[in-house]
Amino acid sequence: MGARELPARARVVIVGGGIIGTSTAYHLACRGWTDVVLLERNTLTSGTTWHAAGLVTQARGTWGTREVVQRSLEVFHNLESDTGFSTGFVQTGTMNLATSPERLEEMRHLADSVRANGIEAELCSVDRTLELHPLLSADGLHGSLYFPKDGRGSSTDTTMSLARGATSRGVRIIEGVGVEDVLTSNGRVTGVRTAEGDIEAEYVVNATGMWGREFGAKAGVDVPLQALAHYYVVTEAIEGLPRNLPTVKSGDEYSYVKDEAGALMVGFFEPGSYAWGSRGIPDNQGFVQLPEDWDHLGPFYERMMERVPILADAGIRLHFCGPESFTPDGQYHLGEAPYLRNYFVAAGFNSVGFLSGPGAGSVLADWIVDGRSPIDLPETDLGRTQRHETNRRFLEQRVVESLDLSYEIHWPFQQRSSARPLRVSPLYERTESAGAVFGELAGWERANWYAPSGVKRKYEYSFQRPNWFEHSAAEHEAIRNGVGMIDTSSFGKLLVQGRDAVQVLNRVSTNDIDGEVGRITYTQWLNGHAGIEADVTITRLSDDQFLVLSGPATVNHDLAHLRRHIGGEEFCTVADVTGTMAMLAVMGPDARRLLQPLTDADLSAGAFEFGASREIDLGFGFVRATRVTYVGELGWELLVPSEMARHVWDVITEAGSDFGLRPVGYHAMNSLRMEKAYRSWGHDISAGDNPIEAGLSFTVRWDKPGGFVGRDALAAVKETGVRRRLVQFLLDDPEPLLFHDEPIYRDGELVGRVASAMYGHHLGGAVGLGWVVAPEVLPRGWYEGEDFSIETGGRRVRATASLRPLYDSKSERPKS
C-alpha cells in the first residue's frame, strides 16, 4: 500500500501494520501530522490482527482502559463516514454469564465500576438473560450482566479503513520493509534503519504486536510480553440461527460465543495454554497458525455445548489456533519509554487489541502531538516494568498465568502464584517465622498480613470480608493504640549525589529540598503540564547527597524521570540502592517508649522532632532513623544495612514483648494510610492530576529560587481554579466494602469515582479516596457534606465526604 521508495526522513515512523499501528497513523493524520511513515515487514494485519475474533467489549479492568475502549467505539461508529470503508461494526451487546453466586457478586461490582465511566450495564435475571439470548441453557444460571452498547466488527476491514483514512491525508504506508534497528543519540530517538536505507525521524512508535519485546530490545527498551497459543472454533452453518445475538461470555466455562455469518464462533480463554516463540518469533513470518490440539480444547468445547445446546448438532468448519501476546500483569504497554525520549510503545494487548486498538492509536496520537496522554493511564506506563520481567523463563510462567486467570473471577486482593519467590527482603525469614502471608509486588515478596498461631496461611478470596480481615484489623489497631512494626524493605531507594544534586532535585521538586542536613521533605515531581509524575520523600544526608524514597512499583519510573532532568553539564548521579538497605517502620503511640531504651540517642519530641533524620545507634550497630509516617502515628522509619537487618529485627522484637508489639502487614498499612487520606501514586494520583486538585498544595513552594518544572502550568491552574478534587469518603453504613472505581453520586447525580479504598478499622467503615468533578469552579464546601453516596455491590450507600483527613485532621498524633 503506497510507494516502495523510502523517504530520507519523516516526523514519525510507525513500525507495525496492525490495527494499532494504522490507528496511530490515522489519528496523527487527523491531527494534521501527515509527515508520517508506517513500515510493515509483511503485509497489513499479518501479525495477530488478521485472526482477531472482532469482539468489542467495554468491561475492562481499570477506569483508564475503559476510557480507551470508549474512544474505540467512537472510531467504530464514525470511521466509515470518513473513509467510505466499513469496519463491519454491529451493535449486538455482550452478556457476561453468572453461573455461581460468587460470579453474580462479581457482576454486581463490575456493574458498579463501569457505571463510573458512564457505561450502560444491566444486571439481568435468568428469565431476562434467556429472553435476550434464547439459545442458552438455563442450567446452573444465576443471571448475567448485559452491555447493550457492545458489539463486534471486522479486524481486517477496520485496519484497512484506518489505513485508507491515513493515506488519503498524506501518510505513507510501506509494506514489505522490516526495521533492523532503531537509531538513537543522547537518549533520544533519531530514526530507524532498514535493509533499504535509514529514515531520520523525531518519533518512533513500536506497534509490532507479539514482536514488541524483541523489537524493543533493539533500542534497549524493556517491553515484557510473550506470545501464547490462543484458540477458537467456528461451526458449520446452522439453519435458522438468529443474527446479531448478544455475544456470550461465560467465565466459569472459559469461553465466549458469538454468531458469525450463520454459524457460531466459540473462543477460549482456558487454563493450560503454552508459550510460543519464547526464544524469538521468526521475523519474516506472517499470518501464523499453530497446530490444532483437540485433546486440550475438547473438554472446554464440551462444556460450552451444555451451555449452548445447539452446538451439539453443529459440525466444525474451522479449528483455529494462533498466537496472541500477553503481559506479566495482564495490562498492555502504552506510552513513552522511560529512558528513550520520543520512543512510544503500544503492544502486549492480552487479546483485546482489536477492541482497544482504535482507541489506543487515538490516545497515542494525542500524546505525541500534545506532549501528554489525554487519558490518565498509570497502569500501562512502561516505567512499571521490572528488569526481571523480560526474562524468558519468568515470562513463560507468569504470562501463561495471565491467560489462565483471564476468565476466572477477579477477586479483590488476588495474588499471583507463578514465578515466586523472586525478590525477598533481608527480613524474609523473620517475617515468615512471625506468620507472614506473602503477596507479591514488582517481584518482591511482602508480608500482606500475619496469621496467628493455628490460622491457615492462605488467602480465601471473597467480595465480602475476607479470611484475613480480622487479623489485619488487629494489626491496624495495634498501630493506632500501641505499637507495630512493618517490614518496608521493598520500598525504592535512590541515592542522588554530586555537586549539582541540590540544583537538580530542587528543579524537579515542588517543595524546597535545599534545607539543612538531616531533614526529610515530602514533595511531588511534575511534568510540564503540572501533572504529578512522582510522589516521594527526599532526605538530605549531606550537602551533596540525598536519599529519595519511592514505591516498589514506581521506583523505575521515578529513576527515569529524575535522570531525564539532569542536564548534560550538571554533576549529579542517581543510583538505585534499594537492595543495599532493609527498612523497618516502627509506628504507634508506644513507638518512643519501645525504641528509647535501645539507643543512646535522645528520641524525645524536643530532641528528635518530626521530619528529622539522623544516624543513631541501635542494638550493636547503627541505623538511619527518620521521624516520619505513612500511617498517621508517632514513629520512625529505620534504614538498616542489609547485613544487620536480622539483628535489628530481633532486638526490637525482643524489647517489644513488653509493649505488645505486633508485626504488621501491607494490608493494614494501606487501611491506616487511607484513614489519614495519604495519597498513593498510580492509585489516587498520577500524571493526569495536579497538586491543587489532589489536595497537595501544601508541598508547593511557589517562590523558591529557580522555580520548578511545571510551575507555570500549575500557576495557571491556581489562577483559573479547579473543577475536580480528590475527596476522602467514609461510608455511613459499617457493613459494605469498597475496592476501587465505584461510582460517586451527589444529590443522585454521577460526579466521580473511587480511586482507591480500604476498610477503616478505627473509623468504623469503608474509606475511599475518590475524584469528584463539579459542574464549574465551586467553593471547597461543595465537595463536602452529607449529599454524597457511593454505589457498591449494586446499592447506593450514603457517605461522609471531607477534604481534610477524617482521622486526626490536624495531624497532631505523628508530632506528639
UniProtKB/TrEMBL annotation:
Q: What is this protein called?
A: FAD-dependent oxidoreductase
Domain Aminomethyltransferase C-terminal spans what residues?
724-808
The protein's superkingdom reads Bacteria
Enumerate the transmembrane spans: none
Q: Which Gene3D superfamilies match?
A: Aminomethyltransferase beta-barrel domains (2.40.30.110), D-Amino Acid Oxidase, subunit A, domain 2 (3.30.9.10), FAD/NAD(P)-binding domain (3.50.50.60), Probable tRNA modification gtpase trme, domain 1 (3.30.1360.120)
Lineage runs: Bacteria, Bacillati, Actinomycetota, Actinomycetes, Propionibacteriales
Instruction: Please report the stretch or stretches of sequence annotated as the FAD dependent oxidoreductase central domain.
Output: 370-425
**Organism this protein belongs to:** Nocardioides panacihumi
GCVT N-terminal domain: residues covered: 427-704
Please give the InterPro entries that the UniProt record associates with this protein.
Answer: FAD-dep_OxRdtase, FAD/NAD-bd_sf, FAO_M, GcvT/YgfZ/DmdA, GcvT/YgfZ_C, GcvT_C, GCVT_N, TrmE/GcvT-like
